[in-house]
Design brief:
Helix content: 40-55%
Radius of gyration: 21 Å
Number of helices: 11
Order of helices and strands: HHEHHEEHEEHHEHHEEEHHE
Shape: flat
Number of strands: 10
Structural class: mainly alpha
């Protein structure tokens, strides 16, 4: 995506983007598809490593997360936003090259977030369709920011939304509550090792020298969200789902479905099927061997 953007001229950016936006969409959807495929294989590999049964009750449709943004809007609409922002900045007097550079950073962030979210969504659905998985443990990809570090190693129920910020690359490891304790991580150790960024000198002193609890020093919720569509202006609820300003039905993301199901796994399964994330056909078990339990690289 960076290479594609770098080839566009700052002057005439809008027209140039119109000629390559289909290429950009193809790159991003390919990334989403790869992340979804990797996540789908990852869950049974982790269960095998943990010694948990792998008995999916239905088949997960990986294509359900390809071509749509985490908010449920068409992906192409989201990809156009960096261009619109850059053009607006130029209209406000910002030098074209600077405006283009800012738009490029925004585009990279959008692309990274959408690919990672596609993988996370399929990972969560693959977990929900397996009764042995009762939740997940949050794991870091060091180096990490302070907000993520203090959440590492925590066990969350299957229905809990995954708190993340833009460009967040943390992963959730499917688990059952009785084995989650073996997967804990130590945020303070990561901070002492210099693998956590975004802390002030005062924060570092409090944690490293004074032994303060990182969770009491860092506000983990600042700038974090779960990708829910709730609260977005112009979106309303109907019997069929969520409808935007253009009257088109918005497919609920898995996290929105879990929130609506309110802890009822059977209801969550029904909604996942209704919104196209699963089919009625049982999913065949993955072949033994290979893969291992490493987090997917989405």
């Amino acid at each position: 995506m960076r290479s594609l953007w770098s080839r566009l001229p700052a002057v005439g950016l809008g027209a140039a983007w119109d000629r390559v936006e289909d290429d950009a969409l193809g790159l991003l959807t390919a990334g989403q598809a790869a992340a979804a495929s990797e996540a789908s294989a990852y869950v049974p590999a982790v269960l095998a490593e943990l010694g948990l049964p792998d008995n999916p009750t239905t088949r997960v449709d990986r294509s359900s997360v390809v071509g749509v943004a985490a908010s449920g809007v068409p992906l192409l609409d989201l990809l156009r936003f960096p261009v619109q922002r850059a053009l607006a900045d130029m209209d406000d007097g910002l030098e074209p090259l600077a405006a283009k550079a800012s738009g490029g950073k925004l585009l990279e962030g959008i692309a990274q977030t959408q690919v990672v979210d596609a993988g996370r969504a399929i990972e969560s659905v693959e977990s929900v369709v397996r009764p042995a998985v009762t939740g997940y443990v949050r794991m870091l990809r060091l180096p990490s920011c302070a907000r993520c570090a203090i959440l590492a190693g925590r066990f969350y129920r299957w229905s809990a939304g995954f708190q993340r910020h833009p460009r967040c690359d943390c992963v959730h490891v499917p688990a059952s509550e009785d084995v989650a304790g073996d997967m804990r991580t130590d945020p303070a150790a990561a901070i002492r090792a210099g693998r956590v960024h975004g802390l002030s000198q005062a924060d570092l002193k409090a944690i490293v020298e004074d032994g303060a609890d990182p969770a009491r020093v860092v506000n983990a919720n600042k700038g974090m969200g779960t990708g829910q569509v709730f609260g977005v202006p112009g979106i309303k609820t109907t019997a069929a789902g969520f409808v935007g300003k253009d009257k088109k039905l918005i497919r609920l993301r898995p996290e929105s479905i879990y929130r609506l199901a309110d802890g009822d796994r059977d209801e969550a399964m029904r909604l996942l099927r209704a919104h196209g994330y699963t089919t009625d056909a049982p999913k065949p078990k993955a072949a033994a061997g290979g893969g291992g339990g490493k987090p997917p690289r989405h």
